Amino acid sequence: MIQPLSTTLAPSTFRVLLACVAITFSVTNAVQAQDAAAVYPDRPIKFIVPFGPGGAADVVARVLVEKLGQRLGQPVVIENRPGAGGALGSGIAARAKPDGYTLLLGFDGILTVAPTVLKSLPYDTVKDFQPVTKLVDIPIMVVAHPSVKAKNLAELAALSKKEPGTITFATTGSGTTMHLAGELLKKRIDLDWRHVPYGSGSGKALIDLLGGFTSTGFFAVSVPAPHIKDGKLVGLGVASPKRSPVLPDVPTFRESGITGMDASAWIGLLVPAGTPRPIVDKLNREVSAVMNSPEVAARLQAMALEPATGTPEAFGEVIRSDLVRWAQVVKDGNIVVEQ
Question: Which value, in Å, is the radius of gyration of the alpha carbons in the chain?
């Protein structure tokens, strides 16, 4: 009878043998990953955008893909998969084979806000995705209708105390980044205002604000910027660490004395968890080169979008910290969103 190997070798020898086997497998896997990266990509890449054509996320994707395809030597094909506020397409990407041939255009709202307000999603942001790099920051701001007797955030807070319950703030919907930023601002400066959510994007919210049906609104800077320049709306403050070059006269929250309130929406690139690290690193290098090129950076900044690439680890830390921060805001505000 053949004896098991573990009974024919001394324990110390057996442990050494197991260690050698483990090292062999590790080295083999590393070599295979390097080989995969060396030939990657050798066929077209699918780029899932979990929203319909025409929005900010889709615009960023289209700015990126042409030059990225040129750098990689293979077409990068956008596949718009809208539905469930971005959850449908994100779920499809999460279940894709982790080989670098499926990319996801990730949005902060669906990756770090939705998990804090929705009970079920077809993915786990941390477990199912490998961050590649953040692509852009989307500065957000508070604007007011000219009829509101406040020209800055301090005056808005004072007005809300003088006339409690009368000030409203419009956003693109309950449980969005704009909504939670509004709740966070409410806590920071003891602001008495009432949320008015719009579920159909920023268009209807902006129209109603221009018409004076709502008092104020939280928007991406690019949305109200033309109307602020025309005097139809008043910019009260930008939540980014620095002023927006699109609206250089509007102060930041920091300049208004509001600390701990740096907030912006963001768009980033992710791949399914388990994608070989050499492929992740190659994507990071090539995408960063595209996003930071003078031509692309100028196009993005003209749309009030700030290129914001970095390492996979840095992007992963942004995701984790946003999950923690927004979960606390949801808890403090007792925010419930019907699914």
Answer: 24
Side chain identity, residue 8: T
Q: What is the DSSP string of 286-310?
A: HHHHHHTSHHHHHHHHHTT-EE---
Full domain range(s) for residue 62: 39-137+266-333
* Two structure tokens written together for 229: 């320049």
Q: In terms of domains, do 133 and 151 share one? A: no
Q: What whole-number distance in Å separates Cα of residue 74 and Cα of residue 41?
A: 7
Is 29 part of a structural domain of the chain?
no
**Do 118 and 45 share a structural domain?**
yes
Q: Do 214 and 302 have their domain in common? A: no
pLDDT along the chain (339 residues), means of 10: 55 55 50 68 97 83 94 96 91 98 96 91 97 95 97 95 94 89 92 88 88 96 94 96 92 92 91 98 98 93 91 98 94 79
Whether 170 contacts 208, CB under 8 Å = yes
Q: What is the pLDDT of residue 12?
A: 63
Q: Say yes or no: 231 and 284 in one domain.
A: no
Answer for the pair 102, 128: CB distance below 8 angstroms, yes or no.
no
How many structural domains does the chain have? 2
Cβ within 8 Å of residue 75, ≥6 positions away: 44, 45, 69
**6 domain-assigned:** no
Q: What is the CATH number of the domain that holds 121?
A: 3.40.190.150
The predicted pLDDT at position 316 comes to 98
Which distant-in-sequence residues (6+ apart) come within 8 Å of 77 by Cβ? 44, 45, 46, 47, 65
The pTM of this model reads 0.83
3-state secondary structure of 191: coil
